[in-house]
Amino acid sequence: MLRLLSIIGRSSFTDILFWGVMVILFFLFLWFIFRQRKVGKKLKYELEQLDRIKGNNIESDFVLKAMKLTTWHLDPKTMKLTFDADFREKGTWVAPHVDGDSIIELGQQIHPQDAPFVDKALRDICEGRTEDYHMEYRVLIPHSDNCYWEESYATIVERDVEGKPTSIVGTTKRIDNRKQMEQALIEARNRAEESDRMKSAFIANMSHEIRTPLNAIVGFTSVLPDIEAEEERKALLDLVHENTQKLLHIIDDVVNISKIESGQEQTQLTSFELNQLLSEHADRSRQELKPGVGLLTAFARDGEPMMITTDYGRLSEIVRHLLSNAVKFTSQGSIVLGYDMPADGRIRIWVADTGKGIAEEHQERIFERFFKVDEFVPGAGLGLSLCRTMAYSLGGSVTVTSKLGEGSKFVVEIPIQ
Fold it and tell me: What pTM did the predictor assign?
């Protein structure tokens, strides 16, 4: 009996132990499942964060690439640079960025005129004297006299307990196009200011130029009724006629240049004899020469006709203005009007004088509208501008070679048929 009870007791204890172990295992299984779910959620969250960071990096690279920037870090203690990404516009050439470069090595790539300012600005931010850094500078292109423009920004991102900078982040981009636009705007502004100045000068000159012949016309005509002597009346009428022609020429110049530039006046091609045209202008100009000045002709085909086809009116105006200009500035010596034999369907007509000459810095500006080297010399400053405008309208050009004190030579070259 005791043995039976002993066997039963052992069997119950074994069952209890078994079931106890099973319960523990069950709870362990539940805990494991719960733990795995928690780990899974954490892993999922970390994966989502990783994707987000990866996406942010892609977006950052996209922004940097779109803005054509390079990003870098500067260690204020070692003054060494570390580059993260380089999306600068390369152009013809761009200075390579190398991790570990110092600001001294960077300065060797920068234009000597800009390098000291860049070096000072970087040292100021590294030593905490400034919060931000912003510089525009030129970078040298090796084995060349050329350079390109860069713009850099930087700011302090970390400091130590003493407030000293420990990390600086910055960006750099190439700005050649912007600099070209800025230069173009500056030049446009300067041209606008110069144009405004020249317009003011033009109004003043025109007022004087128009008033001079008008005063003569009004003055002479007012005394004509009181003049009885026929010769004196004829002399006054000749002066009135002369001043009337001067006034008409001034107005014609303004009207002609306006019509040509606005496209209202079309070229009219006609065939005519060049020697006759030039001789007529030479004869008229001889009447205006200063004492002691001679006017000669040098025609490539002298004594026989030289037929050409172009716009008679415009060529005539060009020759008239060039001769008038030579007569005005030549007080001794001679003036020569001539032309060379046509070549490649073009002809060169020229006027050479032994006048006062033109300084080199003014030899191109004299073709600008309203520009006058000597403000005291009569004229509105339109003649040479009109000559070049008319020559361009014919597909040609007007150029000058001159030396102060030795004279000038104006050459008009136009196509002929």
Answer: 0.50
